[in-house]
Amino acid sequence: MKSLKPVMISGREVMPLVEGGKGIAVSNGESSAAWAAAGAVGTFSGVNADFYDENGKFVPVVYHGKTRHERHGELMAYAIRGGIAQARIAHDMSGGRGRVHMNVLWEMGGAEHILHGILEGAKGLVHGVTCGAGMPYKVAEIAASYGVYYYPIVSSARAFSALWKRAHHKFPEWLGGVVYEDPWLAGGHNGLSNSENPEQPQPPLPRVRELRALMRQCGAPEVPVFMAGGVWYLREWVDFLDNPEIGPVAFQFGTRPLLTQECPVSEAWKNRLLNLQAGDILLHRFSPTGFYSSAVKNGFINELCQRLEHQIPYSPEAVGEHTAELAIGARGRMVYVAPADKVKAESWIGQGFGEALRTPDSTLIFVDPDRAEMIRRDQVECMGCLSACAFSNWAQGESGTTGKKADPRSFCIQKTLQNIAHAGNVEDELMFAGHNAHRFASDPFYSGGFIPTVRQLIERIQTGD
Length: 465
Hints:
The structure is a single chain. Helix 1 (29-37) runs parallel beside helix 2. The strands form 5 sheets. An 8-stranded parallel sheet has the order 3-11-10-8-7-6-5-4. A 3-stranded antiparallel sheet has the order 9-13-12, with no helix packed on it. It has 465 residues and is of the alpha/beta class. The longest helix has 27 residues, at 68-94. Strand 6 (128-132), helix 4 and strand 7 (149-154) form a beta-alpha-beta unit. The protein folds into 2 domains: 7-279 and 439-462, TIM Barrel; 299-421, no CATH class. 30% of the residues lie in helices and 17% in strands. The protein has helices spanning 29-37, 68-94, 111-121, 139-145, 157-166, 204-218, 267-274, 299-309, 339-350, 369-380, 413-421, 454-462; strands spanning 7-9, 12-14, 17-19, 41-45, 99-105, 128-132, 149-154, 178-181, 188-190, 225-228, 249-253, 281-284, 292-296, 311-313, 324-328, 333-337, 355-358, 363-367. The chain is globular.
């Protein structure tokens, strides 16, 4: 294993080891402070972060607005307050060592407003902003206006090219690095394009080589590329070290930091991670963002898969193969389906999945009455956490809607991520994880259920393991 050399990140030489940001209270001020205090880079989440009262007690988020626009305003105010709180914790606990970054999602509701609000309220406390989940054209301008470095998250050279040519080239001095996130291995939302096959992973080395060549061709500064997604043992990444085709690199860890003492997730969550097996992470497209994402296969994911299994096409009138009548809803409204699909529907109804919900793709899904009620309630109670939501049909802007039918095959992502971050049942909520999470069970470092401190993890990583 080659020894790691310090690299310049956000204006200071630090170890090229980075905590990956994980949204909604999973990467917080305490966890990021521990990474920074160890001479590395900590990253707290600026996505609806937790905040506290004057006694330091966590304040649960409660929405009072009667409309989505009103709740959206409350959400942005909460997010700014929480982001500032976590920045102060990270700054104070790190004692000026390392670097503290903030991670935001460009597709989160009110991203620009929230980013301005946190950076204004936490001046001098945040050294860098990482941003992905969309095409964050304005993040460079916003970060630069506060004297903060920016780190776009991309999954291809093509994505970086679009960002650089349209906007980022105007602020080259504040480009701190580029995060290359493997779209097949990363946890959370994945940057797979429509031209890439989710079932055919591509090796990262050629893609990162292409990214660096494009950066040099564009005239971008020779800043580090952060390797993210699938990073576990550094000995597996020696081809990236001291490689002139790749240039300076750092390594970002998103999944491994979940099993540290400073990580705020519940003991049940940590125990679940310790017992995962290969194949227990699913790359799926249930997210209301429309992006692919990766999560642990649990009851929550299984139920979403079941909705797809209980799905048939329908027409409002007899046409083509849709010749069989099927009465749905409390009023018994008639729709038309294929005869074979009517047999399926009647079987599902007989099993207790008697509620038929329409999707934007002219299909019906069949769920039990309690699930149907939950779906409808969550859609009505939408608080606008995304810039556009397929599940509720919310979109920020005057109209407040995408103009499309709400999709019952998805879910309220704000609700489930808040729940699991605050001791919700790990089987009933969305549990994001990278595709190497199963390695916790086989890595001898975690034998006997050992959960290290961040400093112990960083020391272990530097050995190559």
